[in-house]
Each structure stands twice: as C-alpha cells, then as structure tokens.
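Dig into what follows:
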Amino acid sequence: MQLNNNVTEFILLGLTQDPFRKKIVFVTFLLFYLGTLLGNLLIITTIKTSRALGSPMYFFLFYLSLSDTCFSTSIAPRTIMDALWKKATISFSECIIQVFSLHFFGCLEIFILILMAIDRYVAICKPLHYMTIMSRRVCSVLVAVAWVGSCVHSLVQIFLALRLPFCGPNEIDHYFCDLEPLLKLACTDIYVTNLLLVSNSGAICTVSFVVLMFSYVIILHSLRNHSAEGRRKALSTCISHITVVILFFGPCIFIYTRPATTFPMDKMIAVFYTIGTPLLNPLIYTLRNAEVKNAMRKLWSKKLVSDDMR
C-alpha cells in the first residue's frame, strides 16, 4: 500500500526550529534517556540477580522496567539525533516501525500495570491463596497474554496507518511518528479512522485506567481489616502503583481520546509520557520500596567485593 503514496519520507518538525532551543532539547532528552536506561536496567539487573525479589510483584516489575526501557528507546534516540540536524527526515518505513514500537511497548506497559494491580489484589485480599493463584506459571502465562495483546493492538495501528494515502504535504508537526499526526497529512476523509483510533487506543487507555483505579479502591478498602504494620506496607506499595498509573494514563487519555483535535500543549504532554514517565517509574519504585533498595545495596556490595578481590 506504500507504493500508492507519493510521499516516501516525512519531515519531523520536532519540538522547536530554534537552534538554541534545539540544543536544550538535545541535552534534556539525552539526560532523561540516560537516566531512564540507568534506572530501569538497574532494576532489571537487581531483580534478576536477587533471590529476595522472587515474588510475582517483582516478576511483573521486571517486565514493567523492560517495557519502559524499550518504550523510551523507540523515541528518545531518534529525537536526540534529530535535534542535531537542521532538517529531520524519516522514511515511510521507519515511521511505520516507530508507530508499531511506540504502541506495542506503550500497550505492554498498560497491561503490565493491570497485572501488577491483580497481583496486589490477590496478595492483600486473598493472602492465604496468594502463592497458589499467582504461581510462576500463571504469571508467565499472563505476561505472554500481555505481549500478544500488545502485538494485536500495534498491528491495528499499522493497519490504520497503511490505509492512509499520502499525496501532499509531508511535514509532521511532532517529534515522532504517531497515527494522530499522520492523520492530518492524509489526503482522504479520516472520520472513520478517527473513530477507530478512539475506539482502539482511546478505549484501551480509558477503560484500563478506570479498571485500575476501581481495583485500587477495593484494595485500599480491604486494608482496614489488616494490622497497622501490614496496612502501612501495603499502603506504601499501592500508593507507588497509583502514582505510576496516574502519571502514565493522564497524558495518554488526554492525547488519544480526542485525535480529531489538537492543542498547542500536545507535544509537551507527549514529552511527559514518552521520556518523563519511564524515568520516574524506577525512582518511584526504588525510593518507596525497602526490599528493592536493600537488594540494590547487596548487589552493589557484592560488586565492590569482587572488584577488590581482583
């Protein structure tokens, strides 16, 4: 279907065309991306090497950090390099790949957050059956379902993008390829595509957010029957999860539930959930989780000891 288009590449207008502001974008994205890689890879390494972090909650946290890393990588490196060029171009194929990876890892993060909420519900509301219900096999199957569901969602986005004919302007008023800015360049009626986008991405974001918040309301309500210490520990974990959910879903709902209209702040909001949230997630989970911090200290201590023995 690409052969039917007159456009073979797109020009990304980015966040700004001002040379000085481009330098600010370069430095900001580079620092945020390096921080995202460092924080999430540290969590991934800690969970993989620590026996103390073998519970299902950390099994899901491992995949959340992995999806955060890949989600940020699908956008940040390209934006960093584009900030160095006077005119940033991206081929049609590269644009489609970016749309796929963006939605795949973004949707995977949504599903992992839902699995983490299920895990907390079982742990707090059904503690006696926790290890039976949330066995390693069950957790692995749930993660596999999340990967398949994310792939299906992304393929729908690609199908919608490939159906669009591009025959005129090729300037994307954004710093990355997404279906919403591509719709503006299509030389056809996009009403049906808009509806499909809202019913797909918009519905996934909104329904998932409502389900997550409702589940945490149930969890928090059930904490009144726990001891003070158990309530404090469970509350700390749930607050971390709720914070991540609000930070990630707020901007996504704002962007994907109304693709037919755009606002000047859209790009800045996109910055928040594409490079801000992946950086904040490891900070939120490590600063509010004593087990993760202790495991990181032990990992760091072992590394220092092994370096000294050399």
